[in-house]
Amino acid sequence: MPWDPRFVWDSSAGIDAALTEGGGEEVPLGSTGFYQVVRVGIYLSAIYEGTVLTDEIPLLIELGNPYAEAVLAEVFLTEDGSDENLPGSKFPPLPVEPGATVTGSWDTTRVPNGDYVLQVGARLDNDVVYLGQAVTVTVSNVVFYPDPWEVGGEAIYVGAQTIYTSGSWALDVYDDQAAHVGHLEGDIASDGFCNYSGIPGPGFSLDNTDGAGNQNPSKFYTLAMTVQSAGGGAPSTSTRKVFIEPPWFICTRSVVCYKQPFQSWQPGWDDVLLLMQAIWSVEEPFHQNLLGTFLWPFQIQTPANWSTVTNQMARVDARDFFYFGHGSGSTMGDAVARLTLGQVQTLLGNNFNNPLTATNMHPYRFVFIDGCNTADGDWPQAFGIPKKTGMVATDFGGKRGIRPRAFMGWNRKKVFTAVLGGSQLHPPHQTYIITFWDKWAEQDQNGRPVRDITQAKDAAANAAPNAALGMVIYGAKDLVITN
């Protein structure tokens, strides 16, 4: 523990000598003093082993950090140390200075009932990661939502599930002017889902279009689901808001860029250029590139270059994005030229549950940020993509009436040395990235994609297994390059 020099006791003066303030950095030999007790790591307060949780709960986070210059860049809540944030968990905007108390929240109705091994984590801007002590809790809500993404479009998904295995449900729907626009009733299925008669479950979707097929203008809807057990008793009501995403039907164009991590005299300089040329050429016939050329893909060297990139990202037809270079859970680039997650979120207007502007004003179809730790932060949400694994295209189109989308990035299992091998690009990483793009772009004789995004990722892992650790896909795992 570090010595606190403000208080020392001179042992030569006897046991009754007073403590003195301002002892300086040098502690007199034989002196007794106070030590600053510092608890290093991250800790979740007020949630104990065996606690039963319901509804939305506060998350009180304490971080003890010995790195005086480091800044807290990310806090996350996971299930037993997984790499995916628990649905319904949220924390205030970061970064914040280390040592600050962080208070988040977890809406437990956004996960199925059951036991969870909670583990809170933190990442500093120097890429130090802390994981807290695991604690087992039980989540128990009368009504909960196993598919918790509260975004709709031409359809609104109602995926309510209850602890009851029989009984009845009633749904009331209100628009953004608090006008009552619908009422439905039905029976609770044996698996607890509130299904609508004649529609295969689980759950059902509401049509959000007018008689002419146009999306209704409401920015959000409030869904009040009331359930009652077949055995009687008091009914229970759960209310949630679903925010509406504006429609987009135009052709997708692509923004491809990179931040060169090597010097021009190093072999890695040409390695990266060849990598970017390969990616640029694959994207061009499917989603025309807005920046650079095949010979000279767009390179970021200065803050002004990032401005050029963001100007193109903001175009209404820009819906694909690829970046190679230094990255983190909240930044792309380095100290010389950097783009932050907050800047992208503000630029695109995504992931804001704002009753005045709805949500996801400019979602992207496909985003691949090829930089360290880019899957550990909130980059998917900043591009209007849910940070949830295992989703499929029908979770977007069929359930919600919006276009499918996916995000690819590396989590904290991917280390910096697995990308940059001294003065050159690590050959397995180059093989992995090029293989992914080639396999994803492959078409059959009828022009149909041969592989979806997961199958292309698996092919890349087979080609370069040493480079595959830490790759994560959020959103539609079956997205194809032509979606």
Number of helices: 7
3D shape: globular
- Which regions contain 5 or more consecutive residues with pLDDT less than 50? 1-25
Distance between the termini: 57 Å
Mean pLDDT: 86
* Alpha-beta classification: alpha+beta
Tally of separate domains: 4
Q: Please identify the top-level CATH class of the largest domain.
A: Alpha Beta
Structure description:
By secondary structure, the chain is an alpha+beta fold. The protein has 4 domains: 3-35, no CATH class; 41-139, Immunoglobulins (Immunoglobulin-like, Sandwich), CATH 2.60.40; 145-244, Immunoglobulin-like, CATH 2.60.40.2550; 253-475, Rossmann fold (3-Layer(aba) Sandwich), CATH 3.40.50. Helix content is 14%, strand content 32%. The protein has 7 helices and 31 strands. It has helices at residues 267-283, 303-313, 341-348, 379-382, 397-400, 427-441, 453-463; strands at residues 3-9, 20-21, 32-35, 41-45, 52-53, 56-64, 72-79, 89-90, 102-107, 114-124, 129-131, 135-139, 143-144, 151-152, 155-158, 161-162, 167-174, 180-187, 204-207, 220-229, 236-244, 253-258, 298-299, 318-324, 331-333, 338-340, 366-370, 406-410, 420-421, 424-425, 471-475. It has a 6-stranded mixed β-sheet, with helices on both faces. Strands 5, 7, 10, 11 and 12 form a 5-stranded mixed β-sheet that branches. A 5-stranded mixed β-sheet has the order 14-21-20-17-18, with no helix packed on it. Helix 1 runs parallel beside helix 6 and helix 6 (427-441) runs antiparallel to helix 7 (453-463). The chain is globular and about 75 Å long. The relative contact order is 0.09. Residues 1-25 have low confidence and may be disordered.
